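Table S4 entry, Recombinase RarA.
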Amino acid sequence: MESDALFTLGEPAAAPSALAGSGAVGGFTAVAPDAPLPVRMRPADLDELVGQEHLLTPGAPLRQLVAGSAPMSVILWGPPGSGKTTIAHLVAGATDRRFVAMSALSAGVKDVRAVIDTARRQRRSGGPPTVLFIDEVHRFSKTQQDSLLAAVEDRTVTLLAATTENPYFSVISPLLSRCVLLTLHPLDDAAVRGLLRRAMTDERGLAGALTLAPEAEDHLVRLAGGDVRKALTALEAAAGSATALGTGRIDLATAERAVDTAAVRYDRAGDAHYDVTSAFIKSMRGSDVDAALHWLARMLVAGEDARFIARRLVIFASEDVGMADPAALGVATAAAHAVEYVGLPEVQLNLAQAVIHLATAPKSNSATTAIGAAIADVRAGRGGPVPRGLRDAHYAGARGLGHGTGYRYPHDDQRGVVVQQYVPDDLIGTDYYRPSQHGAERSVATRLPLLRRIVRGLPAPARTEASPAGGQAEAPTSSGVDGSRQPATDAADEVGGSADGKGQQ
């Protein structure tokens, strides 16, 4: 027998008659008086189910499933404490169906086939239809999930599966296509608060033996984070503490002593991992340092691999900060090194410093768009042969092939820049890199047109022109890094030499 801490699962192939003798109901062990509070407070019918109103409208698949009016197979996807197992209990309460429950944590292909064989025999003999409930179905391997396909297809069994992980990632497509997917949402604070109050007064719960202070109630709702199971478990712990202290009231201090840490909903292998990571990156990109630190803390507390976080920071430093703050890549790389050199928990300080730097840095995605455009051209077939002057001329016979002919060595020019074709013929004049005006990249944006003009042998624009009043206009100006207006210099001055320097053509 296996337990998920809320209910005991019956043997996979056990018939209803075999379970009845032990007080089981539809494959689940009957609720004992000393069962955990969340178990005792399970809704007895759909009218008591709270928080999934979008699934409870008349004629909705969930109502049809519980009522047994339509033999559809269903996958219940939702976070812990949202009601998946409760729905399974409601389905099990239907008397006209044989209900078999198993957990993917312990069941195997042999167990699944045993249930299917029994269901097929009963179906042929005119017996009741079989509902097979599989908890944690995402833990089934592909082979185990494959074993369900034929039986679900011909309705030998009606599958009711529960998962906390995104079924589009964790359930094979053929099985998913044979089922109706019902998404359960985390309960909002009002729903959790209502269930706490019900548990305080209901005979199945605390039956009015204690009172709950409003601030203690707020504390339990906050800790629950939409997980009603956690809320009721915390309430039961607080009630036990209050009883032990001989007081009839659960105050804030009692509630805090009973449960003081909120569970972090985070799955390193599922969609929560991707959602939190996405929020983390987008918060840094949006320069919201406080949000970025929250998501960083969320990952650290949940046990995310610090190396994964560091890799994301290194990527972000070039993807979203880039040339606006070239030092950002060094900061991120240093944090990644600290992960290996220092390790947790101390390295969280290094990661936090890097996150703060990246979130508050000026942003530019020019490097990202530049390489993206260049790769797109290459994949589109643009780019001819390497220009002859740039080809390798170090091996015997290369000169005879004309390799290196006409190549001009930039360091021989006092400016360090010469007129020269560096791109294939069909890419002449193509600009991939388009610097922003953010941070340190502003000075690059000023310098780059001058470099391109020299390399491409383009004439310099006229420095003066007649003003509308007939006089001479002021010299062109450019923006400095600090935002001040500065007189523009000619190309030669910007790159370190005169316009008529050595090698200029």
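The domain at 189-258 is CATH 1.10.8.60 (Helicase, Ruva Protein; domain 3).
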